[in-house]
Amino acid sequence: MLHIKAFLIYTMIVFLVTCEALAQGKVKIASIEREPYLGAQLPGNGYVIEVIKEAFQRVNYEVKIEFVTLARAQRLVKQGAMDGFVPSYDRKTDMKHYLLSSPFPGDHIGLLKKKSLDISFTNHTSNSFDSYLKQLKQYKFGIIRGDPITQRFDYFQYTKNEFVTNDVQNIDNLEKEAVDFIVIDKYSAGDIITNQRPHLIGHFDFIEPIDAQNSFYVAFSKHTQSHPSINKDFNQGLAEMRRDGTLRKIIEKHGFYPFRAQKKDKKKLIIGTVNNREMLRLQELSEVFEADNPHIEIDWRIMNESTLRKRLLSDLAISDGQFDIMTIGMLEVPVWSKNNWLTPLSNLPKSYDLNDIFDKIKHSLSFQNKLYALPFYAESSMTYYRKDLFKKAGIRMSSEPTYWEILSYADTIHQPEKEIYGVCLRGKAGWGENMGFFTTMVNTFGGQWFNQKWQPQIDSDAWKKALKIYKTMITKYGPPNPENNGYNENLALFLSGKCGIWIDATVAAGTLFHKNKSQVSQDVAVVKAPVAVTTEGANWLWSWALAIPMSSNHKTIAQQFISWATSKNYIELVASNDGWASVPPGTRKSTYKNKAYIEASPFAPLVFDSIVDTNKQGGQKRDVPYSGIQFVEIPEFPAIGNYVGQQISEVIQGKVAADVALKKAQKHVELQMRLSGYYDE
What we know:
Elements: H1 2-22, E1 25-31, H2 47-58, E2 61-67, H3 70-78, E3 84-88, E4 98-100, E5 104-114, H4 129-134, E6 140-144, H5 148-151, E7 160-164, H6 167-175, E8 181-185, H7 186-196, E9 204-207, E10 213-221, H8 227-244, H9 246-253, E11 267-274, H10 277-292, E12 296-303, H11 305-317, E13 325-328, H12 332-338, H13 359-364, E14 366-367, E15 370-371, E16 374-379, E17 381-386, H14 387-393, H15 403-413, H16 434-444, H17 461-476, H18 487-495, E18 501-505, H19 509-512, E19 524-528, E20 542-547, H20 555-565, H21 568-578, H22 595-600, H23 604-613, H24 637-652, H25 658-675
Parallel strand pairs: 1-2, 1-3, 6-7, 6-8, 11-12, 11-13
Antiparallel strand pairs: 3-10, 4-10, 5-8, 5-9, 5-10, 13-20, 14-15, 16-20, 17-18, 17-19
């Protein structure tokens, strides 16, 4: 009996020790808002928070993050009420209260100036930040009072300074020429300008010294007994992330790319592109191009749609010049070309056969009769559905469905207990994500973004009706957490048989009908995009295209690559590797005359009709002053669309009522349009 008791006691001890090993404990970290690196509204709360959570998870800690002000964060840590705070810096840190973790990549501090300030620096490529400052004694600097950025540099004690409370005030003062330079992180500057002051994009230059990139640290509290072990364990998790590449992947997922040295005897092309299947295939097949052009190496920067757009605009906002090739679309080409941000394309080889490109697509990628981008693929939108589910339910899909019919179909086939959802829609916030789809809904309900006087119409009845049915579809008959689902996420859901209906881009058809990639390839069917009270603007028009920014130093070889990537030869290369159904659609007349493509692509006629019949003017029979169907062709639209998209996202998450969100969006857009000078009322 004693032996049994001893065994049970031993087993219990082992169990408890194992549990303790599996769950070391809980860690409370205070974080300041430091966009775009960390913030409550950022995806995953930002790159820094993702790194911290991943590092601690690897050593079996549960992490709780609380966003507070810097002063409160420091006070809580000094009191031992929090285990640590982020971000901290190596200099000017009170080591009496804090134990710093191992470093990880931080911000990029430099100087922002107006383009109109003509100034040159000696030894530009080798200057440190302090070296720059010593050449600028006669100028006035904008500095945030008490910001740890400027506290790291003693030199600002001896300069002429204008103190402000935040970066937005600093940028406004710079634009008004109240200061000559402001001290700022380059990604923060780019994001603030594109999101809050889009009318100032391209007005500034960023001066980045060689020591621009700094390190972040977690400052652990010395006023907790466990701080040495917590710090040690965190550093262990962080070291593992460095070794296996996870740290780099997280950083790049958020659009931050460290400098990579160029190989000897090679010219590097840096390409910023979207992480969809078509572009990932291009990355794979680009090895063929590199093999034929051994003097060229390609550095791919692949991001999700919203992050890509943010980083490209941020780059232009401060004239940073990170990219040689940009993946952009029909909104950006006319706007960016007008501002002289893109390189006009000329002297294309005869074999390219520019006349083979659909006239509508070619026109959409031109400005003042000059071509500024080459189309990789083009798309409209349509309705995908599972004909097996419809047959089993005894219903038939209309060839031209209304949104009320879609709602009824979704209700009939919705089987969440089997992980089959009635309808999948874009819910992820972004002007090209949820607003790309939702704007077409607004169009069909008779709504629009602006009237002829450029006054926003967001709180109109049409917007309210569209939002009501959108919310019902996506929350009642959609998959869980729809606010996380964009194009790629919904595509994966449909491919795995979890969506009954999906309204989205025609480009997805090649994957959905592919028997080796889709679990439902034999059961998928397509019809037109739904309508409500009008067909005007019911289906969008878009082309992901490749363009060369004016800031590129490799324009000739960049044009050589984009000509190859959008050529007939590339289409044939895809067909030979992955089948004709997978070739980039919507761009070339010859593709839709090719018997092999038509036979492999039962969806081709509907895609062709959707693109050819779509009016880029967005239904200009309506009284609107702008071009674009699912977007508004003005520089301010990305910032406006992203903001409104966030409000719509909060509605479907139940955080705010629809009417409240639309009124808030209306006021925000009214303010932005006044700031941009569209009207004075």
